[in-house]
Amino acid sequence: MTTNGRTVLITRSTDGVGRYIAERLAAGGTRLIVHGRDRARGEALVERIAQRGGEARFLAADLSSLAEVRALADAAPDDGGGLDALVNNAGVGTSGAGRELSADGFELRFAVNYLAGFLLTRLLLPVLERRESPRIVNVASAGQQPIDFSDVMLTRGYSGARAYRQSKLAQIIFTFDLAEELAGRNVTVNCLHPATFMDTTMVRLSGVKPISTVEEGGAAILQLIESPALAGRSGLYFNGLRESRADPQAYDESARKKLRALSFDLVGLADPQSARV
Ligand SMILES: NC(=O)c1ccc[n+]([C@@H]2O[C@H](COP(=O)([O-])OP(=O)(O)OC[C@H]3O[C@@H](n4cnc5c(N)ncnc54)[C@H](OP(=O)(O)O)[C@@H]3O)[C@@H](O)[C@H]2O)c1
User: Fold this and answer.
1) Model's pTM, two decimal places?
2) Which residue of 31, 121, 174, 241 has the fewest CB atoms within a 10 Å radius of its CB?
3) Whether the Cβ atoms of residue 193 and residue 240 lie closer than 8 Å to each other
C-alpha cells in the first residue's frame, strides 16, 4: 500500500474505539502511532496493520504519570516529520472502588482523561505545526459536570461518575480555550461525544448494556480528523456527527481562565500567553 504521507497519534488505540479508528486510518495509507499501556496488545495491532500493508509503530505510556506523558511526547515525532493529527482518546470510565490518585497525586480521572491530554497537546504543538493543516481532536463525552474550582481533586462528595464527567467537561473547556489561542495559526482543535454506550471495555466495566457500536462513535471521530468540510474550523463540540452545545460552564470565560491557570501550574509549564504580557 502506498502511504498518503500523513501521520496520526491516537492515545489508547490498542482497543476500543481508538483501535477502530487506527485501523481505518491505516487502511487508507496513514502512518499510525499506536499508544496504550499494554505492549503485547500494541505490538499485535502494529503487526496486524503491517500484514495489511499499512505502517504503524507502538509507544507505551501510562497516562496517570506526567513523566510518562512527557516521554510519550518525546518519542512521538518521526525524524523531523511532524504530526497531522493528535487524538486524545484515552479515558478511564466511571467504574471503580473509590477515589483514586494518579502517580503525581492528582484525582485519577482528572489526571488521565484531561491533564495528560492537556500536557501531551502542549508538548506536541510545535510538532503538529510543522504540517500544513494539523488537527487536534479531544474525545470527550455528553456526560459533563461543572468543575468545582474549590475542590477540583474531589476530596468531598466523590463518585466515579462525577469524576468522569468533570474530566470530560475539562477536555471541552480546554478545547475552546486552545482554539481561541490558536486562532490565525494552522492548527485546529475540536472535541466530541462520539456515541452513547459503545460496546467497549469502559462501558462493559461500568455494568451498562452497550447501545451503540464502535463503528458509530468511530465515524464521528474520523469526521473530526479528516472531513474536508471541517478544514479550518476550530473550537467546536460535536454530539456524534452533529455540531452541538456543551455544558454552559464551557462558555464561561472565568472558568476557562481558572482551568487554564490550574493546568499550567499542575503540569509545570509556563503559559505562553502570560509570557507575552
Ligand atoms: N464507550 C463509550 O460509550 C463512550 C461514550 C462517550 C465517550 N467515550 C470516550 O471515548 C474514549 C474511548 O472510549 P472507549 O470506550 O473506547 O475506551 P476503552 O478503550 O474501553 O478505555 C478504557 C481503557 O483505557 C485504558 N487506560 C486506563 N487507564 C489508563 C492510563 N492510565 N493510561 C493509559 N491507558 C489507560 C485501559 O486499557 P489498558 O488496560 O489496555 O491500558 C482501559 O481498558 C474515552 O475518552 C471515553 O471517555 C466513550
Assistant:
1) 0.97
2) 241
3) yes
How large a percentage of the chain has pLDDT more than 90? 92
The Cβ of residue 34 has, within 10 Å, a number of other Cβ atoms equal to 28
Backbone angles phi, psi at 189, to 5 degrees: -140, 125
The finding on whether 201 has its CB within 6 A of some atom of ligand 1 is: yes
Q: What is the mean pLDDT of residues 67-71?
A: 98
Q: Give the three cell numbers for residue 90.
A: 484515552
Tell me, using a 6 A CB cutoff, whether residue 234 lines ligand 1. Answer: no
Instruction: Retrieve residue 24's grid coordinates.
Output: 481505518
DSSP, res 37: S
* Residue-level pLDDT at 274: 84
Pocket flag, ligand 1, residue 100 (CB < 6 Å): no
CA atoms within a 13 Å half-sphere pointing along the CA-CB vector of 30: 22
- Number of CB atoms found within 10 A of residue 37's CB: 15
Determine contact, residues 83/8, Cβ cutoff 8 Å: yes
Report yes or no: 136 and 177 within 8 Å, Cβ to Cβ: no
Strand partners, 182: none
Distance of CA 102 to the CA centre of its chain: 17
Q: How far apart are CA 153 and CA 101, in angstroms?
A: 9
Residues noted as catalytic = 164
pLDDT tops 70 at residue 276: no
- How far apart (Å, rounded) are the C-alpha atoms in residues 207 and 182? 40
CB 115 within 8 A of CB 66: yes
Out of 13, 14, 17, 145, mutate this one to test ligand 1's pocket (max ligand atoms within 8 Å of CB): namely: 17
For 232, left (φ over 0), alpha (ψ -120 to 50), or beta?
left
Give the chain's end-to-end CA distance (angstroms, integer). 49
> Residue 277: which residues within 8 A CB-CB, separation 6 or more?
none
- Whether residue 132 contacts residue 187, with contact meaning beta carbons closer than 8 Å, is answered with no
